[in-house]
Inverse folding.
């Protein structure tokens, strides 16, 4: 697998702090996001590399392994295990030479054999699983409301995925076998996609429920009446009860957000009434309100 210098991708050196990494990633990810460069394949490739670089370098443990092993950082534990076995094996060979008068030559290091091919008497190459890829996919809230398909480009390969309705902001899914190729014939890694959902509506989402505020005039609040309210899938008519107070909340059952991977199940929509007081009253209106005030007293 081609080595990618994650520090170079982010425009940083190896002494960069965690804050430096975070700032560089956010700046470059915005600049090279596929939505802003729809026909630029190089931007797509760079955006993927930026995600990989941030995933590795923002994690202290992964970063330490990457600094030591480069592209093979995910196999660090295997390498350390092989190294320990090599040390143990070399110790055994030394004892045989000293005590058994055994004439051995050559290096029996399976560790270096697994990394660089067959050497001396070592004929086995260790297979390693490929590196996992990390990617971020941005959606609008209206996109997440319905099940739909999108095509992703990973290392020049198009992958068509179905995104179920009700996907959550920050939710991560795994596409098995769509990561980097394995070493020495090992299996491919996986592709992990994290969803970033931008709210492009007037609704506030909390899990499967939606919340909105609707303004009603003073006269509708006092006398009652019919109003029309927007929902995610159209308009509905509501009957406002007489003497409705400011801040009153009503629930529209089943008018909220789809429940993830549950067909025809939805949360609820909560509508809060905001009563608007009239302004720029005419003299006649002021007179009538004064009469009402006298009656009230």
């Amino acid at each position: 697998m081609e080595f990618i210098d994650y520090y170079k991708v982010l425009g940083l050196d190896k002494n960069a702090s965690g804050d430096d990494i975070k700032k560089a990633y956010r700046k470059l990810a915005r600049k090279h996001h596929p939505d802003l460069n729809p026909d630029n394949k190089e931007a797509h490739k760079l955006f993927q590399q930026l995600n990989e670089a941030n995933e590795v370098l923002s994690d202290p443990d992964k970063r330490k392994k990457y600094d030591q092993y480069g592209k093979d950082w995910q196999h660090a534990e295997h390498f350390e295990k092989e190294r320990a076995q090599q040390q143990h094996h070399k110790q055994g060979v030394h004892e045989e030479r000293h005590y058994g008068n055994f004439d051995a030559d050559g290096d029996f290091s399976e560790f270096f054999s697994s990394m660089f091919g067959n050497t001396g008497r070592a004929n086995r190459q260790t297979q390693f699983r490929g590196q996992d890829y990390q990617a971020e996919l941005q959606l609008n809230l209206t996109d997440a409301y319905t099940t739909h398909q999108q095509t992703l480009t990973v290392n020049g390969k198009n992958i068509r995925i179905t995104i179920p309705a009700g996907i959550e902001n920050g939710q991560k899914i795994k596409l098995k076998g769509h990561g980097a190729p394995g070493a020495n014939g090992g299996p491919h890694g996986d592709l992990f996609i994290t969803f970033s959902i931008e709210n492009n509506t007037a609704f506030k989402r909390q899990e499967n429920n939606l919340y909105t505020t609707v303004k009603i005039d003073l006269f509708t609040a006092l006398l009652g009446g019919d109003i029309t309210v927007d929902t995610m899938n159209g308009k509905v008519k509501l009957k406002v009860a007489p003497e409705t107070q400011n801040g009153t909340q009503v629930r529209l059952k089943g008018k909220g957000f789809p429940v993830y991977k549950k067909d025809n199940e939805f949360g609820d929509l909560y509508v809060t009434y905001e009563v608007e007081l009239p302004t720029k009253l005419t003299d006649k209106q002021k007179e009538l309100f004064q009469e009402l005030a006298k009656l009230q007293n």
